[in-house]
Amino acid sequence: MEKQIISIEIFNAKSPQKGITIDNVSLNDDILSLKKKFCVLKNLAVERISFKLEPTGKNLVDNQIISELKLPILNAQLYYRDLGPQIAWKTVFLAEYAGPFFIYPIFYFQPTLIYGDIAKSVVTSSKCVATIALICHCLHYAKRLYETQFVHRFSNGTMPRRNLFKNCSYYWGFSAFIAYFVNHPLYTSPGFTQVFVSLCCFLIAEIGNYSIHILLRDLRPAGSKERKIPYPNKNPLTLLYNYVSCPNYTYEVISWISFSLMTQCLPAGLFTIAGFLQMKQWANGKHKNYRKEFPNYPKGRTPIVPFIC
Prior knowledge:
This protein is an alpha+beta fold. It has helices spanning 31-42, 89-109, 111-115, 118-121, 127-150, 162-182, 192-219, 247-263, 266-293; strands at 5-12, 20-26, 49-52, 76-82, 86-88, 158-160. The mean pLDDT is 92.
């Protein structure tokens, strides 16, 4: 069967006055191949461009076949948006997690540099909890760095370069904010029972979070964008999938609630609240996509908090 060839005129979504025509486009081609042809003419990196059916519509995915768009044979049109300079997701994650891993210990090991002479004159009784907090904090971000390098499989290759500054400011800033208070010479730690129980919950949540990330990695073959419904495996910490769509976020929140209670530190609590609000938004989006994509998706699951939200 002879391939059907069309021409597609592509307009700027922000100012669609004059378009660029791409000739000899096969209906069997995918969006990515069309992007490559377009970017040669525009002298832009493929990662910077998104295509839409309408100026304010959703971005078309790269592996979508052009015939599926139901474009007219004559006067076929699409719209593009320049996303600006891009940077790899992996690079951003490594940078934003490396900051806290190296920043936090400065406050612990160099107190006179941060707090001045008061660090020499005051003998704190909370050094043990400060040490535990240091280990937990560094362990958390060491785990994140390891997962970014060896576990996660990113469905999106890049993000806007401006996100590097925004994300690093958030993580690095909160890390310094928390470390300043927990390692302060005048810091007073909570009682033993509160610290011990919180530490146990923190460690369990960290292992649970890692377990979910391993499950998700095994669910998607390397180099694939295939999506499946995640279900618990033999690891009991994955049973949370019976109740929520994003148990990795649930465990992440539990980790930071535990850290906040263990240190009884207000900045850690603020970081926990900010993180929960952001992860709840992400979880809502993923939950919605799961239900839309899979008609047989388990109805009893909520996005992030079992039975609630």
